[in-house]
Design goal:
The protein has 194 residues and is α+β, with helices and mostly antiparallel strands. The chain has one domain (26-193): Coagulation Factor XIII, Chain A, domain 1, CATH 2.70.50.50. 13% of the residues lie in helices and 31% in strands. The protein is globular, with a radius of gyration of 19 Å.
Length: 194
Amino acid sequence: MRKRLVAAMIAGLVLPFVCTGTATGHGYTANPPSRSYHCKTGAVKNCGPIQWEPQSVEGPKGFPARGPADGKICSAGLSQFKQLDDPRGGTWPAKSLTSGARFEFTWTLTAAHATTSFRYFVTRDGWNPAAPLTRAQLEATPFLTVPFNGQRPPNTVKHSGTLPAGKSGRHLILAVWDIADTGNAFYSCDDVQF
């Protein structure tokens, strides 16, 4: 009996340390489909490990003042996901959207986390879709910000917003999920055709 009591006490002390890891939020945009989502579904080949971890494109928050370096924004600066930064000559599959229309953005979260906001940036007219993404290629401010005020979102997050007006041709939407209680954010590059 005494051995069981000692074992239970040890388990009570050790179990919290075993079960508490560095669990953080993870997610990607499914609508419009992100590059990591296209890799997950096999629509795009030669993606490297992102095909098994589309939810793991996590980097420093504070974009655009801080965050991943220019040319490494789509991978959040993670070398194992560098395939996301490769523009592939501007041939990533692109979702057709209507400029100025309402659109429902959808995120798939595999681990929800306390959230500051979801923000959406779009490329400037005349940007180069055959070059890695830089801040200079994006409009300076997000066209949509959805505040969450520290709340934890559900595993499927949907919110509607108005797409930028006056856009035509191929563009990229950078979706940024800002986490409230860590120093990180999740980055999702969505190729679109207006």
